[in-house]
Structures are given as structure tokens and as C-alpha cells.
Design a protein that fits this description.
single chain; alpha/beta; five-stranded mixed β-sheet; DUF6036
Length: about 180
């Protein structure tokens, strides 16, 4: 799979999806999550982020879920609804907490959650690559610390195995301190 190095790479794939949706009469609102969401967010504020391998989205709204699922698959975009314990689905599909990507789509509205929500996906993960992102990129520096800590405290109650030693959450305060945040 080709790596996505910039917002333009992501928007190119989303334009393919938009064209498929247009030809099939599909209208949809999607939230971009994961590395692609962070890449879009960071480039929007003039910062860089590492390349990513895929585009992960969650559905906010559509007129035809079955056709949209097929279109996403054809465009090589992953629908990931319900994979993570936190943040809760309603936090990253509520348009009031998202910013809309300013792009010329006909049948799509594309949103990205704020950086604190995107950071929480990495904080509550146990994947090494997410820990590396927290340590080696500016994701946490872009966060409002009070908002981030508030979300972390709120989301802890949703974690089934909070005692998992591999959970990146357990290193958060050390990383914040190392970064001078």
C-alpha cells in the first residue's frame, strides 16, 4: 500500500471516494481518525506529521450505509466504527466537536476531531507505534493540556483493563514532563 505523506495524498483518495459516491447517489459525512486525521490536523496548523499507511474513518451520517461501505472499500478507505474503547463514538461523531475539511467535495462532508481526541486514541492504545508518536511528534504539544487531562480522566472509566502495563496511558505524565508540557 502506498504511504500517505501529505494532506494532498489523503484528499486525492477522498476525491476518488467522492466520485464513487456521486455516481451512486451516496451522500455521507465522515470523521477522519488515526494517523490520517492527525496528519490533516497538523498540516492545517502548519505542522508536520509522519506519513501514514491508511485512512481510517468513522461514519457520522449517510443516506445508504451498504453502498457507502462498498464505496469505501473500493476507494481503499477503512471504516473503523467501534474498534477502540475510547474515545466514545459520540465524542468523535458529534459535528459540534469536529472541524470540517475545506475541500470541494460534491457528496461528502469530511471532518477531523480536535487534536485532544486524536491524542486520546494514541494514549489509550497499547501499540508501540502510538507510543512512539506520543514521544517523538508534536501531537501532545498541540493539545490544550487541561482539556486533554480532563478527557483522559473521563475516559479512564471506560477502559476494561486499565491495569494493562502496556497501555500508553501509564507513560503519559512522564512524556508530558519530558516535553515540558
Amino acid at each position: 500500500m502506498d504511504r500517505l505523506h501529505s494532506s494532498d495524498d489523503i484528499l486525492t483518495k477522498l476525491n476518488i471516494l467522492d466520485h464513487i459516491c456521486q455516481t451512486r447517489g451516496i451522500v455521507a459525512e465522515l470523521a477522519i481518525l488515526g494517523g490520517s486525521g492527525i496528519l490533516l490536523y497538523m498540516e492545517n496548523i502548519g505542522q508536520s506529521f509522519r506519513p501514514t499507511q491508511d485512512i481510517d474513518v468513522n461514519l457520522i451520517n449517510t443516506n445508504d450505509i451498504q453502498k457507502l461501505t462498498e464505496a469505501l472499500s473500493e476507494a481503499g478507505i477503512d471504516l473503523i466504527g467501534g474498534i477502540s474503547e475510547v474515545p466514545p463514538l459520540e465524542d468523535y461523531t458529534n459535528i459540534d466537536f469536529l472541524y470540517e475539511i475545506n475541500a470541494e467535495f460534491d457528496n461528502l462532508r469530511i471532518f477531523v476531531p480536535d487534536i485532544e481526541l486524536l491524542a486520546c486514541f494514541k494514549i489509550f492504545s497499547s501499540r508501540e507505534k502510538d507510543l512512539i508518536d506520543l514521544k517523538e511528534t508534536d501531537i501532545l504539544k498541540q493539545c490544550n493540556k487541561e482539556k486533554l487531562i480532563g478527557l483522559v480522566d473521563e475516559y479512564k472509566q471506560y477502559i476494561l483493563k486499565l491495569d494493562n502495563p502496556d497501555l500508553n496511558l501509564h507513560q503519559l505524565f512522564h512524556i508530558l514532563k519530558e516535553k515540558g508540557i
